Amino acid sequence: MTEDNSTAAPISQQVPPHPVPTKPSAAHNIFVGPNGIRAGWRLIIFLALDFAFVYAIVHIPGVRSLLPSQQIFTAKGLLLSEGLLNLLPLLLAAAVMTLIEKRSFADYGMPLQEAFGKRFWQGVPLGFIMLSILLLLIGALHGFSIDGVGVGGTAALSLAILYFIGFILVGMFEEFSFRGYMQSTLGSGIGFWPAAIILSFAFGAIHLGNTGEAKIGAFMAGCFGLVAAFALWRTGNIWLPIGMHASFDWGETYFYGTPDSGILAQGHFLNSSFRGPEWLTGGSVGPEGSWFVFLVMMLWVIAIHFLFPTKPTAVGQTGTDTGKAFAARPGF
Question: Which domain holds residue 305?
């Protein structure tokens, strides 16, 4: 029988046991998912920040006196209201969210390095052409006519520029709201197309707040939301939809002088008039309330399909893969 002279290793050299993982608390699971803060809470934070910035800007001394009357739609009023009350608070809220989420504007579908680049300028003629086709269809059934020039000379050029800048702001605000940050965030939870459908219906519904708007016009606005979402899916960012949106609204409001979502602006290039049933002309809504919009929307989707045929394939880059990346982020 031999004596065991071995000694136990010092405690400091012993391998510590693996720590038992702690189960996340119920509160943690409510607020945090596999990708950080859950999508629903991020949307709430974003909207709360947006409203807070709007409230703060409105209460800056002297700002209220600059804002236009809601009863009058002018180029300068459009610039002020869209720039100060809509787009600026939205971008500030999104900038805060980039810090919270450690992301960039490109992750929200609006890469700043591509601002007003090729995709934007491809969208501008596409939006104006689709509006012109719509008015040609209405006019073919004697529902629309151009009655002459409303504003000419240097005033026409000045108003054209001011309205175009104003509607770029409109396009940036509405597209970044519904097809940018909210699409990216909601899509990370429920998928790209379910989010696009929900947000398009919401986009259409808010148009009911416009004077002269009708349910059919709001529905058509929601349909445009789906067209814009398809453009985002194909191109990877919202600069093409921004260009389409801006030129369509500019064409209605300034160039052809028609109501835009129930609103008729002061100072437009052409004087035009409608006659006939509302299903044809859109009535007080304007041409976007015409039933011909269904046909134009289909043409729009076909044009995007053939002009931008390559679907994004990679995830984690910017540019053309952003739409796919939106759809690939799980974890509501």
Answer: 35-328
